[in-house]
Amino acid sequence: MVGTAGGMDAGLETQILKIYAQAGAFAESSLGNVRAIHAFSLRSRIVNRYAAYLDEAQILGQKKNVLYGLLFSGEYFVLFAGMGLAFWQGIAMIARGEVEGIGTVFTVLFSVVIAAAMLNSVAPNMVTFTRAATAATELFTLIDRVSDIDPLDPTGEKLASFDGSIDISGLEFSYPTRRDVTVLEDFNLRIPAGKVTALVGASGSGKSTIIGLLERWYNPSRGDITLDGTSIKKLNLQWLRTNIRLVQQEPVLFNGTVFENICNGLVGTPWEHESSEHQLSRVKDAAKTAFAHEFIESLPQQYHTRIGERGGLLSGGQKQRIAIARSIISQPKVLLLDEATSALDPHAEAIVQKALDKASKDRTTIVIAHKLKTIQAADNIVVMAKGKIIEQGRHAELIARGAAYSNLVRAQDLLLSEENSGAESSHEDHAEPALEKSVSLGRHDTNTREELHLLGKREDYGLSSSAGILSNAVKLIRSTPDLKWWYIFLLISSVLGAGVYPGQALLLGKVMDIFTPELNQSRGNFFALMFFIMAICLLLIYMAMGWISNHIAQVYGHDIRERMFSSFLRQDLRFFDRPENTIGSLTSRLDSDAQSLFELMGFNLALIVLSTVTIVACSILSIAVSWKLGLVGVFAGIPPMVLGGYVRIRVETKMDAKIDAKFSNSASIASESVSAIRTVSSLAIENDVLLRYTNELDTAISESRATLASMMTFFAFTQSIELFVLALGFWWGSKLIQQGDIDFYQFIVSFMAVYFSGQGCATIFTFASSFTKANSAANYFFWLRNLESTVRETDQNRNTVPSGGCKSYELEDVMFAYPLAPENCVLKGVSLSIRPGQFVAFVGASGCGKSTMISLLERFYDPISGRILIDGTNNLTDLNPRLYRRAVSLVQQEPTLFPGTIRENVLMGIDQDGSEETTVDHAIIESACRAANAWDFVSSLPEGLNTPCGTGGAQLSGGQRQRIAIARALIRDPRVILLDEATSALDTESEKVVQAALMNAASSGDRITVAVAHRLSTVTNADRIFVFYSGRIVEAGTHSELYALDGLYSKMCEAQNL
């Protein structure tokens, strides 16, 4: 019975774990897109989508009700029925003379009693065993999976020397998830060694796919790629990726120092194991080449400054320059640049482009570019469309043909003359301002450090006054009023189940009567029948307990996960800026904390109640039957066991948080590496990541050993006390029998009652680990639930909206610093006005405060001083952020899409008050897609709007993702559009159309458009351009006015040939 129920349980658990894995991936993706969630007020809809996964898991989990009923009730029924059968058979054998005396019968009988007690300790862990076995099946399946492209495979050729010539012949390719869509078709291209080859064309034409195939992220469906005549399939994969370096369009850095991130480029090279001093020298040289040295030196620990998860404490341009330094530090023979300068400001772009041109000299370089100015000097420009080459040649040749490339060039309004030699260097002497977010890393004096320490503790005060397990259990029960009657039924069944143990003690005592003065077989048969009746009662009681407890656990597991996820998404951005709140650690906690509370509030809670009632009832029975024996047994045994167990729980509670913190570091490494797997693979640092992950685990384990040893000391104490009580009870009971103070019946009843009390106490403290984990999880859950976001909807602003509908902005002496470093101002007294219908642009070097301005206008943060007035009267900080954001649309530099279809992602732009259902007409969706120049590629897909985007939009190209994000912003018909490099990921043709669409949207009525731009050509027609430098506005005016000033803006224009 146990095996059958356990096997069925394992099958269901496998399906449930798969669903939870999907839910975890969705949660991780959503937490990574928290800015978009706040901007479009998507919390309710995202939580509903997350809850849909949980609903599916709960439905499967409820099927386990009957299994849990059978699993536990069957065990106890068989044991107690077997006890009655053994007793009946023993009496019959004594009567027939087959057994001499009652010793053998009682040996068997008490063996079964002890086995039942041990089973009572094992039963609570059956759920854990099942989950572990199920997880192990999935784990070993993954471990045993043979990868078609194994980066750790040591086999393969390593060319002793090579020039870097690449031949692509007869290439055909379709992505595994969309086999019916051909991305490359009969693609042939020769890339000479030491030359620069540029790939240009519309988004989705297959440019980035070529990069993926060269990196061997995929194998082509047909055809081959050779390096110096050798198929790359035959080459050692790590060697290949070490000698072909990639700079991606969206740079990905890792949590660590600047030095560690750039040093990742040395893995697999002869310089990997050089001394730190020599490596630092190489790192600085690479940083200087990438124009990153100056801003790195301004950081508090220079190259040893930590940059946060995914480089979150750096601006986009700064991340890109570090990524460039990381790629060129190994001096690769082949360099792949996938829009490597797209995130840079004009000044930095000019310098970095010059550095890349220098790095590309005598090196095989493949460039993917939308900014055609950056590839005019390429040796061969390949124009692609729909997976094929439509023309190729040098810049001058292609211009002369007047075909596709010439049209792309004209679309960008480039100055085709070569008289730009002084443009790049004209502004090199201007110092770069400090980075936006990294100013939070600035140096602090002693007093400031104390202030920061206190500020850093503000959100953790609740954890320092943690509630106990009983208090938390009561709060958890009260937090789910819908389960009130289920808890009552569980309590009743637990109390009835506990009544079996004092009844068993009385029954065992009565059994002795049948042997005095001589065997009474009829009474023996009667008591054997009583054991069987008790077994039937246990069958029914434990059936009810198993059914009810699993129902409660499944509902509670769903509820806790949903409420924790909702609480995460309710927090403002300063919560996510905190170093302990990495996406990996939050996702890990979402699963582990929910599981800890799931285990406690289900069958474990029933057994705790049962064991508590057993302790009280059996202690009273023991003292009532024989106070002399009972008092000694109860007070000599129970208090030490309770004290030892209590101390163990206290120790575990204090140490559990520390252990969790240690293991959360390894979880963060795993999450960060898996989410950035393309970067990990392109750098060939899989072994390095595994080593760091293993080291974190080893450190966590070694530092936990002393803690575990102390906890096990108390565990051993509580377990050994039980045997001490047995020995004491036998000794003292025998003395009392000899003195005639008690008879044998009293001894058996009182002694067994004490024994069952001890077993109940031991069972409770078997859950010590469950207590501590659940208590820690409950404390965090209630702290998180009560944690108020700084930017939130309150009773005071619930119905407060801009009186004029967001027609104008007035910034008055606005100062801002990121919450973790309030003394370092990013914006320093910014004052400006935005009038109705104006198109306003913010320009300047990376890190000067432009994106921070967007964050303030979106109200991700509030200024520390000054005011942002809307329509002249409404202070932005007084408005309901949700209602205010209904009038605002944001398009970020790095497009963020959610798992789901294109249709679902576009509809995210419509405020639906949390409802997933929508009656939006298809024509409205199509109109938004057309306005974003997305409809042509969407309609060309086999599934159209129903095409899955994949996690993070991975199934789409960067330009396609950006156009979907723009469509999402336009579909809500906003009064204010905030564009943070909105067209940076688009190809030339798409950029021109989308830019026209955005300008058309900006010119409609009183709509305000605020754009952050590095490509100054996109903002030349702005009504007002504000030039930022080091957190201040240094110039303001129209394009012609600023250009005539011959100041900072003029130099930036010259750098871009405007």
From TrEMBL:
One of its GO terms (biological process) is oligopeptide export from mitochondrion. GO terms for molecular function: ABC-type oligopeptide transporter activity; ATP binding; ATP hydrolysis activity. Residues 15-131, 488-773 form the ABC transmembrane type-1 domain. Belongs to the ABC transporter superfamily. ABCB family. Multidrug resistance exporter (TC 3.A.1.201) subfamily. This is Leptomycin B resistance protein pmd1. SMART domains: AAA (SM00382). It is found in: Endomembrane system; Membrane. Residues 425-435 have a biased composition (Basic and acidic residues). It comes from the Eukaryota. The keyword Transferase does not apply. It is a multi-pass membrane protein. Keywords: ATP-binding, Membrane, Nucleotide-binding, Repeat, Transmembrane, Transmembrane helix, Transport. Residues 166-411, 809-1055 form the ABC transporter domain. Pfam families: ABC_membrane, ABC_tran. The chain crosses the membrane at residues 66-89, 101-122, 485-506, 526-548, 605-625, 631-649, 714-732, 744-768. Residues 419-442 are annotated as: Disordered. GO terms for cellular component: endomembrane system; mitochondrial inner membrane. The keyword Transferase does not apply.
